[in-house]
Amino acid sequence: MYSILHDMNWVLPLRNDLATNIFYGFTFLGYAPFFLIFLPIGYWLWDRDMFTRLVVLIGLTAVLNGWLKDFWQDPRPAARFQLDADRVADSYGRPSGHAQVAVAMWFWLAWEMRRPWAWAAAAFIASGVIFSRLYLGVHDIDDVLAGTILGFITLGIFAWLVSERVIAFIRSLPAGFEFAVIIVSIPALWIIWPNGENPAPIASVLFLLLGWFAGAALDKKAAPHKPVLPAWWLQIVMAIGGTLGLFALRAGATKLVVATGLGHPVTGLAVSALLGFYATGIAPWIFRKLGLMKPGASHAKA
Description:
Blueprint: H1 2-6, H2 17-28, H3 32-45, H4 48-72, H5 85-88, H6 97-113, H7 116-135, H8 141-161, H9 164-172, H10 177-192, H11 200-222, H12 232-259, H13 264-289, H14 297-301
Helix pairs in contact: 2-7, 3-4, 3-12, 3-13, 4-6, 4-8, 4-11, 6-7, 6-8, 10-11, 11-13, 12-13
């Protein structure tokens, strides 16, 4: 059983140039640049509340995955198997973050949409992402099985957190409860993190959540109802322009903070919060000023 779960020799005969490019594409769906593209576009053009829930789910998944990685400290497959070694650096293997996030994210979207094709798409995408980690040799079967199981566990926990009873309780709490939870959670990471490892990469996810919630609160105040979007080609312009703005802000903010002499962890945390705020606060404000988003009057009348 141990050899089946950890031996990666079987993957080598499967490799060819076409398959490698395909699985590089699938594995991209589990890295930060994809999330920085997909999540804001979903917020701008699809459903603000749905994608805010999705960001929270991904944050919860990242914390659980990062803690378990540093707790188990399971080594990845040998370097001779790895085609994606530069991106994984010296991080640990079990559980696979790609597998865990893919299951949680895509099946949650399918659950939100309640469409048969969405479930089929979720299964296809999640399976592609999971297998890509094996194909590229950066995880073994043990890693992706653990990640897959934890992805479904995370889904169950999150489904409970957004159930009507829990949401009703949260709404009964004082305003700003969500911010307080995130703020308290950030220093708590350094207390609960196992084996003396550095939780700063996971803390950056919480800082992005903090910025996301702050921007979303301002966005909801400025436009309480679902905005009316322009023609489809203008939506494409919004998606491209907003994404380019986000990555330009990321590059510029990183250079600026580094130039001030602050350390790398501080840089990452500050930039993460700024990117979250841009996605839900700054970009929607720009879109409204340009007339690309208009108040949802029909919803207001309802």
